[in-house]
Amino acid sequence: MNEERITETALQDEVLRGQVMKTPDDVEEMLRLKACGWGLKRIARELGCSHHTVKAYIEAGGVKPFKPPVRAKKLDGLDDWVRERFIRHRGNADVVRQELLAEKGIAVSPRTMQRTLQPYRQALKAEALATVRFETPPGRQLQIDFGERLVDIAGAKVKAFMFVATLGHSRRVHVRAFRHEKQESWFTGLESAFTTFGGVPEIVLMDNARALIVRHDAVSRTVQFNDKLLAFAKHWGFGPRACAPYRARTKGKTERGVGYVKKNAIAGRSFPSWEAFEAHLAQWEREVANVRMHVSA
Length: 297
What we know:
CATH superfamily of the largest domain: Ribonuclease H-like superfamily/Ribonuclease H
CATH class of the largest domain: Alpha Beta
Largest sheet: 6 strands, mixed
CATH architecture of the largest domain: 2-Layer Sandwich
Helix content: 40-55%
Shape: elongated
Strand content: 15-25%
Structural class: alpha/beta
């Protein structure tokens, strides 16, 4: 009796999982006989199977294909968050995994994170291949950025913040050193660049620095500039533009300029004073950086 019950239960499980124990013609016959008023056991005796099997097919309305159960995943509902962090960290899956644990309290294996990010990685690769060099006409665009570096001054390591402005057309650069990266440093650096270059461009392209940008939505690309920046821009007559969040290469000319300053103007050098450091940068800009071949500005 127990053996029969176990067998019938197994058959029912097989049927419910979509494993066809009877032919499609048999199943159609079950439904026809049931419509004629036959009971489950009578149909089972007629077709030589368990009444549990008949019941399962009738309740299902016929043969149903197997559908695997949908299991809840740890990252369900976090697609946008994961994608944004993946783009922000330029494809570094392990950093995304660490932030997921720190901010969301969700621990996943490196393999799980890699599988989750694979579609985004392919999109990121395609985007990189599709990137086209963007050129601007004379007077159109100035790109600005800050770079940070420890500088040997009077025998001590001092953190210096280098403001670097690069003309989009000619690639001429202007460098100023500051002890901080506050809003006043950005404004002073810009005014110094306008004076040095002898004019104001139509557009100044900048990063999403907190001193300048209140909010930049990565999806809609809407930008809210700082009120003081808008007043500064109106005074000088230029249009502020913010590069896309987490896509610093949209201002790649200045990104490269910052690296050039660090590696060429500062690396391996020491200075007796801050003033001597500033004087060196001015001389380097005049005699080295802007002596390179440039397109006419």
